[in-house]
């Protein structure tokens, strides 16, 4: 697990781009929970951190594919492949991510 940022640096339901061991990830805070996904749309290979977060998940800004924050699975076309979801640990007000452990 690598420390990425303080929990207080994350705005609720706003994407936050980070690099963990040379892997681009997008963090999304949902209350006291934080999700970490690969920061690359599986359809168009663009950054998901530039998109918006809705009730359905994180939406790709280019074509509108939406990915579930917990599973990485697309809930709307045109994407048909999931994105990786990484293990997150919150410790002492900090966010840690392990890009070697995917949860999907």
Folded structure, characterized:
The protein has 104 residues and is an all-beta fold. The chain contains no helices and nine strands. The chain has strands at 2-6, 16-20, 23-30, 33-38, 52-54, 57-59, 66-67, 85-91, 94-102. A hairpin with a 2-residue loop joins strand 2 (16-20) and strand 3. It is globular. The protein starts with a strand and ends with a strand.
Element layout with pairings:
Blueprint: E1 2-6, E2 16-20, E3 23-30, E4 33-38, E5 52-54, E6 57-59, E7 66-67, E8 85-91, E9 94-102
Antiparallel strand pairs: 1-9, 2-3, 3-4, 4-8, 5-6, 6-7, 8-9
GO molecular function: 2 iron, 2 sulfur cluster binding; dioxygenase activity; metal ion binding; monooxygenase activity; oxidoreductase activity, acting on paired donors, with incorporation or reduction of molecular oxygen
InterPro entries: Rieske_2Fe-2S, Rieske_2Fe-2S_sf
Keywords: 2Fe-2S, Dioxygenase, Iron, Iron-sulfur, Metal-binding, Oxidoreductase
What are the salient characteristics of this protein?
Rieske Iron-sulfur Protein, 46% strand, six-stranded antiparallel sheet, three-stranded antiparallel sheet, mainly beta, 104 residues
């Amino acid at each position: 697990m690598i420390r990425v940022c303080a929990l207080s640096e994350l705005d609720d339901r706003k994407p936050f781009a980070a690099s963990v061991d040379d892997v681009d990830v997008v963090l999304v805070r949902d209350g006291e929970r934080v999700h970490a996904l690969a920061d690359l749309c599986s359809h168009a290979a663009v950054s998901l951190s530039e998109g918006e977060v809705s009730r359905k998940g994180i939406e790709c800004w280019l074509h509108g594919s939406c990915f579930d924050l917990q599973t990485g699975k697309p809930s709307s076309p045109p994407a048909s492949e999931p994105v990786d979801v990484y293990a997150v640990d919150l410790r002492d007000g900090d966010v840690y991510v392990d890009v070697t452990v995917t949860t999907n």
